[in-house]
Amino acid sequence: MQTNPNFFKSIFNGRNAVIAIPYIWLLLLFLLPFIYVLKISFAETIYARPPYSSLLIWGDSWLPSIKASFDNYLFLFSDSLYIKAYLSSLKIAFISTILTLIIGYSIAYSVARAPTRWRGILLMLVILPFWTSFLIRVYAWIGILKTEGLLNLALMSIGIIEKPLMIMNTDLAVYIGIVYSYLPFMILPLYANLEKMDMSLLEAAADLGCRPFKTFWTVTVPLSLSGIIAGCFLVFIPVMGEFVIPDLLGGSETLMIGKVLWTEFFYNRDWPVASAVAILLLAILVVPIMLYQRSQEKAIS
Amino acid sequence: MKNKLNNLLIAGALTFTAQAVIAEEVVNVLNWSDYIDEQVNTDFTAATGIKVVYDVFDSNEVLEAKLLAGSSGYDVVVPSSSFLARQIEAGVFQKLDKSKLSNIGNMWSDIEEQVAQFGPLNDYSVNYMWGTTGIGYNDGLISERMENAPTTSLAMVFDPDVVSKFADCGVHLLNAPTEIIPAALAYLGEDPRSTDSDVIAKAEAVLTKVRPYIQKFHSSQYIDALANGDICLVVGWSGDIFMAQYAAWDAENGVEIVYSIPDEGALMWFDQLAIPDDAPNADNAHKYINWIMDPEQIATATNYVWYANGNLASQPLLEEDLLNDPAVYPTPEVMEGLYISPTYDSKSQRVVTRTWTKVTTGQ
């Protein structure tokens, strides 16, 4: 059998090699780990290293028999805890996304409308917190929000409140932490979008007698929709699986799926159920991710 | 058994993981956070030329996940007895080569006997330190709210009529179901080591009733919170409460912290030095463990962290108030009432975890 040498040549040309890089990246860092987790989710937990059963059992025949079970997934529906945790995560992610959008939009808008020479510096200030570890920044919030923290001391010293506010260890603290941490992810795509907006459209609206507020709603917001969608998904998707912020700032009753996953993995040592929780989370997120993908494609065309 | 997530997370953010340097003798040690006097490691390197790469962890669960995943890269780890017993069964540890441990004669046979109840632990490990899980409280804040409070009884936290009086000054419980559920059972007079789901349900009833008065379930924040006077009552680990006591004394803030071993009995735990079967430097690991078993070294560590150790020969070298403090080295009578932690199989573990989630989140 002879292979056509041109066949290999056509595969290994420069263009394909460049295109292949992102695919190899995705294959190695997304698809393989995903398949690995998927595999574990069909296994049974055992006490050994690794702590789950093998799916392929090599018997007498030359083909291995497959031993997979859906029990772990069925288990997630047998106890309302898991559904409640998914719903609670959805709620927290949704509310934080809205809050981040409101704050992020006003910041992005003011930066984009600031004099050109200021924009670089203002944008820099948005990115600056990233120079410190995310964890340290969340920790700093404990110092601010706790009963004897900076916020309470300041408010009490100027006489606004008499008793310290109980913010630490509540859902409110979780929202503050999330909005603060994810704000740059909202501001950057919005800024990129608002900054390149055609200002002559706003002038035209003004010339035709449209008031500034109405212009904002009917011209600016619709034109920046792709930025809004990009920012919202960049916030919503990671917040769904957030673990560190609710663990450090939230109370014991803050229920999020990231925490449930942690409990399954570490307390119950049940890697298969933990994997099933992760796969189901991914399934829930596929819908918004696909919507995001479609809106991006639309924006490009 | 200190579940110091906070410290671990900070350490993780600030430090790099263990890294073996070529052509340099190293031993990679993974110990609990705040659990040694650094001098012990510095002197080991000076004496042997072996560099100590020292990492810390915060909970048995996290350590176990690392060990079960394999190739952790550590030579010496310090799991607690009940966890170690299961890990030995899973085959993640190697037997100690006693011929390399010349200091083994220093160990305290009483502690070895206690540890042996978990399984063949003495073949695989030696004791590092041990302690109890008991009640820590702020004397001033408690007596202000209740005269003659039952401070040596678990009623302090498990009797709604009592604990409700302290809700306003802050009550924390360890976020460790395998410690709090046995304590609730001990309060009821049930067998604290029970793994029966019907018995565990009785603990759930107790915990649910007092849940409204508990500010937080956390395993490390209480040290600072107790020392600063932010909270007034906790069920926590002996040495951690002593640490809070010392911090308050050092700060001269007028806070007086007391630790008591409850009359109903307390959980007794043992943190054991062990070598993973895939340790890259098993030989150095033996040298390190032997160094820790040197009476002078372990005494330095105990004088620093205020946990009792399992080394009999080190006792003359300990600070006197420490050795004579019955809260650190309990009297034989108190010792009688202590119980060791239950070893849950995967089914009863799931019951315990689910109970805990129900208690803490209300779901």
What does this structure look like?
Chain A has helices at 5-11, 14-41, 71-78, 80-113, 116-127, 134-145, 150-157, 171-195, 199-207, 212-223, 225-240, 244-249, 257-267, 271-300, and strands at 56-57, 65-66. With 301 residues, chain A is mostly helical. Chain A has a domain at 79-267: MetI-like fold (Orthogonal Bundle), CATH 1.10.3720. The model of chain A has no long low-confidence stretch (mean pLDDT 88). Chain B contains 18 helices and eleven strands. Chain B is globular and about 60 Å long. In chain B, 52% of the residues are buried. In chain B, strands 4, 5, 6, 7, 8, 9, 10 and 11 form an eight-stranded mixed β-sheet that branches. In chain B, strands 2-1-3 form a three-stranded parallel β-sheet. In chain B, 45% of the residues lie in helices and 15% in strands. With 363 residues, chain B is of the alpha/beta class. The model of chain B is unreliable at 1-5 and 8-22 (pLDDT under 50). Chain A binds chain B through residues 45, 47-51, 79-81, 84-85, 133, 135-136, 139, 146-148, 169, 244, 247-248, 251-255, 260, 263, 265-270, and chain B through 5-6, 9-10, 12-14, 59, 61-62, 64-65, 67-70, 86, 89-92, 175, 177, 214-218, 228, 230, 346, 349-350, 353-354, 356-357, 360-363.
Q: Count the DSSP helices of chain B.
A: 18
Quote the distance from N terminus to C terminus of chain B. 27 Å
Radius of gyration of chain A: 25 Å
Instruction: Give the beta-strand count of chain A.
Output: 2
Say how many strands of chain B there are: 11
Reported by name, the CATH topology of the domain at 79-267 in chain A is MetI-like fold
In the CATH hierarchy, the third-tier topology of the largest domain in chain B is known as D-Maltodextrin-Binding Protein, domain 2
Determine Rg of chain B (CA atoms, Å). 20 Å
What number is the mean pLDDT of chain B? 90
Low-pLDDT runs of chain A: none
Order of helices and strands of chain B: HEHEHEHHHEHHHEHHEHEHEEHHEHHEH
CATH homologous superfamily descriptor of the largest domain in chain B: Periplasmic binding protein-like II
Biggest sheet of chain A, strands in spatial order? 1-2
CATH superfamily of the domain at 79-267 in chain A: MetI-like
